[in-house]
């Protein structure tokens, strides 16, 4: 009896990237995979991600798309995700249902029927339709477990009166109603929607409360993390949210044990000349700078970062996306030229971070970027932009000791000081040792007897068992 899982990603690079890696891993485990994305973002991936052609040729792998209901020329800003979700719910339900259960009863490719759905945990549509069809759903939360736990506690924060914050609140005050993190999280470490909310019925707060509550309806909950990194939080989630929780990460590191091929989803063309430039630089001499695929900065902030990096005296490789300044201008035209620096539009990040010339990562603290840095032992300077990034950056400094948290600050002297502190300061060696130990933990976790490898094996076995039960019901 063949297992066939539909993997439905939220249409954003940060979400699609780990889900694509999971999809390949499951395909290599002889599970048929239909990777589902919206038409708009899938077409962008096709333009800049040659890996997708290789994946489409795998015997148990295929791509499918559904409309998102927005006009073709709509910019689809991720920060307007509530509007995107409303459009998806209205326009994509029937096309999604047709993929899960064709009206003809026959798959157009002759594939076995769908027996399981792995859905991005922020998509209510991804759960509701298979639930109507009697298909089991596994929720994949592509953020960190620690940020998910804080999200899960939003209703408790509302009931206790800790949210919304009062006007003029002390942002350094510790948050008391995120169990297990009472000595870690400050008000300023919670996601921006918590900071901006002025009433308990704020749409973003209510969305988070609903989406975290939906998790209990799924068969299981999946995280791209490892036990040795987020063990205490995973234990809280298993006891309080879902008893069947998998930690199978970092997925990009796990995938290297099963495939020598690259697997990435990019919205921009990668500049591989950055690797040749790094080859010419001394060991640990370069600060790699990237704020991910979503963050937007002002021209003033860009100039502050530029001056801080130049004044630090270190070489730097900086990813400046064409839309880093939003619609204001091309950021690469705003920053100047300097002998020690190289600016690119997009870079092969995993390869860059693993390069011996890189000594520090100035990052937005997205979860994928954080894991990629941890996996190769590169300490970080964190400047989070939104959502889970604010919690990730706090854990990088306060809990894991592998970097510094620069949130809420964007001044050249602070950029210069923090870069110097991570590269050469009194605590630099301490952070480097902590990052090195974390890299060892990653290798151990995804290795033969590692916790993430065992969890992935359990996941495969459970998907196949779910599939048997689904097929028996159909007989």
From TrEMBL:
One Pfam family this sequence matches: UDPGT
InterPro entries registered for this protein in UniProt: UDP_glucos_trans, UDP_glycos_trans_CS
EC number: 2.4.1.-
Residue ranges the record marks as coiled coil: none
Lipoprotein in keyword set: no
Keywords: Glycosyltransferase, Transferase
GO MF, any single term: UDP-glucosyltransferase activity
PROSITE patterns in alphabetical order: UDPGT (PS00375)
Family under the similarity heading: Belongs to the UDP-glycosyltransferase family.
Protein name, as recorded: Glycosyltransferase
Species of the source: Dendrobium thyrsiflorum
């Amino acid at each position: 009896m063949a297992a066939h899982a539909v993997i439905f990603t939220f249409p954003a690079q940060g979400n699609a990237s780990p889900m694509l890696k999971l999809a390949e891993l499951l395909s290599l485990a002889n599970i048929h995979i239909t990777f589902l994305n919206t038409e708009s973002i899938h077409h962008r991936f096709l333009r800049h991600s040659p890996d997708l052609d290789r994946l489409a040729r795998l015997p148990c792998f295929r791509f499918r798309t559904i409309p998102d209901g927005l006009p073709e020329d709509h910019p689809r800003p991720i920060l307007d995700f509530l509007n995107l979700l409303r459009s998806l719910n209205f326009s994509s339900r029937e096309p999604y249902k047709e993929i899960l259960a064709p009206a003809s009863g026959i798959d157009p490719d002759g594939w076995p029927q769908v027996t399981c759905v792995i859905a991005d945990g922020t998509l209510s549509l991804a759960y509701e339709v298979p639930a109507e069809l009697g298909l089991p759903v596994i929720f994949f939360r592509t953020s960190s477990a620690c940020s998910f736990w804080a999200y899960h506690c939003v209703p408790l924060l509302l009931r206790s009166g800790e949210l919304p914050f009062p006007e003029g609140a002390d942002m350094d005050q510790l948050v008391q109603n995120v169990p297990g993190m009472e000595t870690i999280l400050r008000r300023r470490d919670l996601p921006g929607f918590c900071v901006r909310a002025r009433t308990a019925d704020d749409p973003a707060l209510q969305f988070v409360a609903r989406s975290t509550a939906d998790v209990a309806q799924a068969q299981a909950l999946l995280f791209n993390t490892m036990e040795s990194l987020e063990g205490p939080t995973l234990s809280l989630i298993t006891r309080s949210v879902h008893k069947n929780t998998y930690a199978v990460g970092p997925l990009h590191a796990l995938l290297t044990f099963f495939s020598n091929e690259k697997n990435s989803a990019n919205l921009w063309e990668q500049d591989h000349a950055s690797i040749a430039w790094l080859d010419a630089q001394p060991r640990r001499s370069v600060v790699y700078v990237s704020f991910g695929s979503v963050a937007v900065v002002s021209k003033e902030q860009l100039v502050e970062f530029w001056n801080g990096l130049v004044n630090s005296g270190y070489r730097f490789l900086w990813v400046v996306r064409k839309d880093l300044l939003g619609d204001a201008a091309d950021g690469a035209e705003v920053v100047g030229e300097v002998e020690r620096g190289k600016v690119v539009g997009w870079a092969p990040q995993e390869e860059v971070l693993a390069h011996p010339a890189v000594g520090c990562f100035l990052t937005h603290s997205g979860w994928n970027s954080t894991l990629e840095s941890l996996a190769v032992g590169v300490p970080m300077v964190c400047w989070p932009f939104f959502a889970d990034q604010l919690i990730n950056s706090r854990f990088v400094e306060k809990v894991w000791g592998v970097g510094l948290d620069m949130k809420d600050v964007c001044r050249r002297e602070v950029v210069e000081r923090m870069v110097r502190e991570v590269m050469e300061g009194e605590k630099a060696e301490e952070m480097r040792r902590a990052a090195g130990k974390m890299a060892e933990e990653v290798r151990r976790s995804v290795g033969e007897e590692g916790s993430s490898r065992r969890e992935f094996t359990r996941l495969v076995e459970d998907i196949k068992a779910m599939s048997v039960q689904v097929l028996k019901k159909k007989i």
